[in-house]
Design goal:
The complex is a heterodimer of chains A (about 140) and B (about 500). By secondary structure, chain A is of the alpha/beta class. Chain A has three helices and eight strands; from the N terminus they run βαββββαββαβ. In chain A, the strands form two sheets. Chain A has a five-stranded mixed β-sheet with strand order 3-2-5-4-8. Chain A has a three-stranded mixed β-sheet with strand order 1-6-7. The mean pLDDT of chain A is about 90. Chain B is α/β, with parallel strands linked by helices and about 500 residues long. Chain B is built from 15 helices and 23 strands. In chain B, the strands form six sheets. Chain B has a seven-stranded mixed β-sheet with strand order 15-16-17-14-13-19-20, with helices on both faces. A six-stranded mixed β-sheet of chain B has the order 10-9-8-11-12-22, sandwiched between helices. The longest helix of chain B has 25 residues, at about 110-135. The radius of gyration of chain B is 24 Å and the shape is globular. The chains are: A alpha/beta (about 140), B alpha/beta (about 500). At the A-B interface, helix 2, strand 6 and strand 7 of A face helix 7, helix 8 and helix 11 of B.
C-alpha cells in the first residue's frame, strides 16, 4: 500500500517504505550515492530504475520530484521522471516499495533478487496546494 | 484438449539442462566469477534451472569470440548465409512442439500461442530474411559520363542485442535473423526473467553456424547488459524494453558514436466506430475478438490494445458484448491447449499489475470485470496469474496512459471521428493502434491520422514478416520485421569511380 498523508508533516510527492529505505542503505554501501529515474513504456516500464548518482544523465526534459532522505545515507537519493511523463502522473503520490523479483533494465537492485516498485495514490487537495513546483533538470548546476 | 508434459517429465517434448553457462565461441563457457542465478517457471513459481550470472569479463570474452568470427562470416556469400537461415528455420519447424513447450515453461504463456504464433512466426522470420537477403541489391548512380557511384551493403561487424522477456525466442529472432543475414556476428543478452529457452533453441541450431557468430551472455542488466551496451567494441546496439533503459543505452551509444535501434513500448488505442455494430455478423464477431486481444500473451505485448475507444452510438451494447467475450477467456495450466491466458512472466510483473489495478480504482475507474489476482490451485498455486480486467474511465487516468503490461484494458467512449483521433493521439507513445469500421474511407483516414507506426485495420495483433513494425514518438527508433531492418544492420560502402584519364586541372 502507498503511504498515507500524515498530519503535521510537510507534503511530499514521493515516499519510501521501510523496506525500500533499507535496500537503498545496502545499495549505497556498495555503489555510493544513488538516484532514481522513473521509467515508462513496455516490459519493465513504469518501474523506478535505481542508478549510481549521475549514471543516468538528466536534462531539461526531466523533472526532479524528490530528494529522498534515507537514514545512514549521507546524500539524499534523487527521484527523477521525464517531464512529459510527469504531466500525466502529477496528480498522484508515489511510494517506492520493494518486492521479490527478477528486475531488469540496468537497475542496481536486480541481482539482489528484488525489485523496486511504485505504489500510487491520489494527492489530497491540501498536499497538492502545499507542494512547490517540481524542479526541471539541466542547467549549470547539473 | 491436449496437456503437454512439463519439461523433463515422462513423455515431455523437451528437457532443460539443470544449469546453463554462457554460450561463447560455439561452446558453453562458465562465468568468470562462478556465479549463477535460479530461474523459476512462472507456471508454478518453482526454479527449474540455474543460469550463468554474467559480468564484464564474460562480455569481453563473448566480444572476443564475435570479433574472431565476424570477418569470415561477413565474407560468406549471400546464398550461403541464406541457406543457413533456411536450415535454422527447418530445424525449428522439425522441433516446433519442443520449442513451444520450452517457451511456455520459461515465460508462462499458453501453449496454444507458442504453438500457433510464437514459433511459426519465428520460423517464418528466418525464411523471410533469407529471401530478403537473396533479393537485396546494391545500387549505382551514374554521376556523369565518366563517373559512377557504386553502393555496396557491408555488415557492421559485431552487434549487441538485448532481448525482452515477453516473447523470448520470437524477439531474439526479430533481431538475430536480420543481423545474421547482413553478415554480422552477435553478442546477445536474454532477459534475466527468461534466460533459458534461447539456450534450448541454440542447442537445436548450433551445428548450423560457425562458432562465435552467435554468442549468448546471460545475467542481469546492470552486470552484463551495461558492459555490453556501453562497449566500444560493438558497432550497434539493438534493444527492446522501456524508456529509461532506452535513454541510457542511447547515452552509452553517444559516448562511442554508435547507432541504436530501440523498441520501447506503447499504449495502443483500439478504436471501434459505430458501424461495427450495424450487423451481428462475422465482422462483428471478429471485432469483439479484436477487443479481447488485450489478453493475448497475458497483455505482455508492447502493442497490447490496452485503450479501447468505442463510439458513443453503440457504446453500451458493444461494451456489454465485449465484457461477455472477455469473461469467456479460459485461464488455467499454460501447457493445456484449452488455456487462453497463462501466467505473468515474473513476480515483480505480477506485483506491478496489481499496483495498477489499485491506482485505477483509486482514480475512479470502474471495474467491469476482473480486477484481481487469480488464485489457481494445485501446482499452479505459486504461479503468477491475473484475471482479465476491463476498466471504464477517462483518458487522463494513469491506467490509460501507462503500459501496464498485463491483461488489463481501459475503455472510454468518443463522439465522432475527430474526438477518436484526439484521444488516440493523446499519449506519449505511438507503436500500435487498431481501427475497426465497415466504412473503409473512415478506416483509412483514421489510420493515417493516428500517430503510430503500425495501425491494424480491421484486424489486430498480426505480426507477419514483410510488414514494418516500429514506433513513433517515445516508442522508439527503427523498423523491425521488414527488409528495412536488414539495412539497419548494414553499412553503405560507396565507391566513387572515375573512368576518365583526364586531370581536373586544379593543380
Amino acid at each position: 500500500m502507498p503511504t498515507e498523508p500524515t498530519a503535521g508533516r510537510p507534503p511530499s510527492r514521493v515516499d519510501l517504505t521501510p523496506a525500500a529505505a533499507d535496500l537503498l542503505r545496502r545499495l549505497h554501501g556498495t555503489h555510493g550515492s544513488l538516484m532514481f529515474h522513473q521509467s515508462g513504456g513496455c516490459c519493465d516500464g513504469s518501474s523506478p530504475m535505481c542508478f549510481p548518482e549521475g549514471e543516468f544523465r538528466t536534462g531539461g526534459s526531466d523533472v526532479l520530484l524528490a530528494e529522498l532522505a534515507v537514514d545512514g545515507v549521507d546524500r539524499p537519493v534523487t527521484f527523477w521522471m521525464s517531464a512529459s511523463q510527469y504531466e500525466l502522473w502529477r496528480h498522484t503520490h508515489l511510494t517506492v516499495d520493494v518486492v521479490p523479483g527478477r528486475g531488469s533494465g540496468f537497475s542496481l537492485e536486480a541481482p539482489e533478487g528484488v525489485r523496486f516498485l511504485i505504489r500510487s495514490r491520489l494527492l489530497t487537495a491540501d498536499e497538492a496546494d502545499g507542494l512547490p513546483a517540481a524542479r526541471t533538470g539541466g542547467g549549470p548546476d547539473h | 484438449m491436449t496437456r503437454y508434459a512439463a519439461p523433463g517429465q515422462d513423455g515431455a517434448a523437451m528437457t532443460y539442462q539443470s544449469r546453463y553457462d554462457h554460450w561463447i565461441g560455439g561452446e558453453f563457457v562458465a562465468p568468470a566469477r562462478g556465479m549463477y542465478f535460479e530461474n523459476p517457471t512462472p507456471v508454478t513459481g518453482q526454479p527449474f534451472t540455474e543460469v550463468a550470472r554474467g559480468t564484464a569479463e564474460d562480455v569481453e570474452r563473448a566480444l572476443d569470440a564475435a570479433h574472431g568470427a565476424a570477418p569470415a562470416w561477413g565474407r560468406t556469400s549471400a546464398a550461403e548465409r541464406a541457406n543457413i537461415l533456411n536450415k535454422i528455420a527447418d530445424r525449428m519447424e522439425a522441433n516446433l512442439e519442443a520449442l513451444a513447450v520450452a517457451e511456455t515453461w520459461d515465460n508462462g504463456k499458453p501453449i496454444r500461442e507458442t504453438l500457433a504464433a510464437d514459433m511459426p512466426l519465428a520460423i517464418d522470420h528466418f525464411r523471410y530474411f533469407a529471401g530478403a537477403l537473396r533479393a537485396q541489391q546494391g545500387s549505382l548512380s551514374e554521376i556523369d559520363d565518366d563517373t559512377v557511384a557504386y553502393h555496396f551493403h557491408e555488415p557492421l561487424g559485431v552487434v549487441a542485442q538485448i532481448i525482452p522477456w515477453n516473447f523470448p525466442i520470437l524477439m531474439a529472432t526479430w533481431k538475430l535473423a536480420p543481423a545474421l543475414a547482413a553478415g554480422n556476428a552477435v553478442v546477445l543478452k536474454p532477459a534475466e526473467q527468461t534466460p533459458a529457452s534461447i539456450h534450448f533453441w541454440m542447442s537445436l541450431v548450433a551445428d548450423l553456424l560457425p562458432p562465435g557468430v552467435i554468442n549468448i551472455v546471460n545475467g542481469f542488466g546492470v552486470e552484463a547488459g551495461k558492459p555490453l551496451a556501453s562497449s566500444p567494441r560493438v558497432a550497434k546496439v539493438a534493444f527492446t524494453g522501456e524508456t529509461t533503459t532506452g535513454r541510457l543505452i542511447m547515452q552509452y551509444a553517444s559516448e562511442n558514436i554508435k547507432p541504436v535501434t530501440l523498441e520501447l513500448g506503447g499504449k495502443s488505442p483500439n478504436i471501434f466506430f459505430g458501424d461495427v455494430s450495424s450487423a451481428e455478423d462475422d465482422f462483428y464477431d471478429k471485432a469483439l475478438e479484436g477487443f479481447t486481444m488485450f489478453a493475448l500473451n497475458q497483455g505482455e505485448v508492447c502493442t497490447c490494445p490496452s485503450r479501447a475507444l468505442i463510439q458513443q452510438s453503440h457504446y453500451h451494447d458493444f461494451l456489454a458484448a465485449a465484457v461477455a467475450r472477455t469473461e469467456k477467456i479460459t485461464s488455467g495450466h499454460p501447457l493445456d491447449t484449452e488455456t487462453m491466458i497463462g501466467a505473468q512472466a515474473s513476480n515483480d510483473q505480477l506485483e506491478k499489475i496489481l499496483s495498477y489495478l489499485d491506482i485505477g480504482k483509486r482514480e475512479g475507474a470502474t471495474v467491469l470485470t476482473g480486477g484481481q489476482r487469480l488464485e489457481l490451485g494445485g501446482e499452479l498455486a505459486g504461479g503468477y496469474y491475473v484475471q482479465p480486467t476491463i476498466f471504464e474511465g477517462s483518458n487522463d487516468m494513469r491506467v490509460f496512459q501507462e503500459e501496464i503490461f498485463g491483461p488489463v484494458v481501459s475503455v472510454a467512449q468518443f463522439t465522432d471521428f475527430a474526438d477518436a483521433i484526439k484521444i488516440a493521439n493523446d499519449t506519449l507513445y505511438g507503436l500500435g493502434a487498431g481501427v475497426w469500421s465497415r466504412d473503409l474511407n473512415t478506416a483509412y483516414r483514421a489510420g493515417r491520422a493516428i500517430q503510430a507506426g503500425r495501425v491494424w485495420t480491421n484486424c489486430y495483433h498480426a505480426y507477419p514478416a514483410h510488414a514494418a513494425f516500429g514506433g513513433y514518438k517515445q516508442s522508439g527508433i527503427g523498423r523491425e520485421n521488414h527488409l528495412m531492418m536488414l539495412e539497419h544492420y548494414q553499412q553503405t560502402k560507396n565507391l566513387l569511380v572515375s573512368y576518365s584519364a583526364k586531370k581536373l586541372g586544379f593543380f
